[in-house]
Amino acid sequence: MKLTKISAIRRKELRQAAFEVLQQEGMAGATLEKVAAHAGASKGIVLHYFRSKQELFEHAMREANLSLSEAVNARLKQATTPCERLEAIIEGNFEERFFRPSICHAWLSLCAEVPREPQLARIQKVIHARMRSNLMSALVHLLPRAECEAVTLAITALIDGLWLRAGLQSEGLTRDIALNQMREYLKYRIPTLNIRAAR
Amino acid sequence: MKLTKISAIRRKELRQAAFEVLQQEGMAGATLEKVAAHAGASKGIVLHYFRSKQELFEHAMREANLSLSEAVNARLKQATTPCERLEAIIEGNFEERFFRPSICHAWLSLCAEVPREPQLARIQKVIHARMRSNLMSALVHLLPRAECEAVTLAITALIDGLWLRAGLQSEGLTRDIALNQMREYLKYRIPTLNIRAAR
DNA sequence: TCAATTATTGACCGGCGGGACAATTAAAAA
DNA sequence: TTTTTAATTGTCCCGCCGGTCAATAATTGA
């Protein structure tokens, strides 16, 4: 029982260390030694818990996504109306602790590997699927069926685009600006919506 | 006279080869040897024309941007009304030859390096500035001044988001879908606009 | 306490990639 | 032609990084 716990703890520590190193070093610079050092361990231990660098960052991506996912779900749990659910999804995706340049850098680095790493592509696919399903479940009550698909794509594209910008031009794109941007889009696109006003 | 030409030609060939290798191999995999081989030359020649790998990909990014930029400008030149200018910018950014998964991969790889490479950051900044200036010059005639800024950000975020998606989920996001997405956004956001209908 | 399992380390290896360089070839200038 | 300059190649070196391994320390279970 204790032994399983230690391994679980180490693995989690290493996943998180990996993601944190990724924020500052990028995928190429995020070497096993740096990750280990950042977690206060030796390089050997990393490969003791993860078969390869690939696998390590696979789990790092899952972990990061999980944490974002939980934030959204927590908000969703408190939402009752479709409108509130929409708000929950969007605000969850722009919480201060996530929508930060360094975090965006890390995601960028992961995304850049997706085309060449099927495992990462799979995770990416899951992330998009969940986002889509969340959005659809709210939009279906706010728009004619035929339009939901398109609006879902627009919202995800907007979110991704804003994240990308936040990653590129460090600072200058605050959470508030991004949130206003999203709210404004919804205000114009879904007239029947009464959401907290955009600016 | 001839010598300057040869050097100019080689440099262009190498920049393009670099960008093409980037499409399939990513930044880490785009080794000097592969770029050289792809251009039909030897590794030495690459470092003869470019001081370092960094500089090579710097120029590759400039080249890729230039080509996109020219496409937009060509369309802009034929546009007369603000509405047409808007259309020109958007359609230029989704021409078939640019809006392809492999090209998106390459841009993704470059963007992922931006946070750690000041040179790339500078280029990125220029790209955004031009895009912004283009959009503003059209929007100013279509919207109250106060709204232009926000709409500009939304449009760029949408474009970036759609490109990102195209890069992540290879195929499945065609140029037509992306263009419709943009047109729909404009239709709702700029009511006074009469643009070719979105689907 | 003792055996067995697990955690952890550090040393080591093989490979590779960026970059330097000297040598060779081609071209241009004189 | 001769000389100088540029183009091009192949080789070599160094450092780094992922990954293996054997050895050691710690923990657990009996």
UniProtKB/TrEMBL annotation, chains A, B:
Protein's name in the database: HTH-type transcriptional regulator BetI
Species this chain originates from: Rhizobium chutanense
Glycoprotein among keywords: no
Pathway assignment: Amine and polyamine biosynthesis; betaine biosynthesis via choline pathway [regulation]
Key words, A-Z: DNA-binding, Repressor, Transcription, Transcription regulation
Domain of life: Bacteria
Lineage summary: Bacteria, Pseudomonadati, Pseudomonadota, Alphaproteobacteria, Hyphomicrobiales
One example of a Gene Ontology biological process annotation: glycine betaine biosynthetic process from choline
Gene Ontology MF terms in the entry: DNA-binding transcription factor activity; transcription cis-regulatory region binding
UniProt keyword Hydrolase present: no
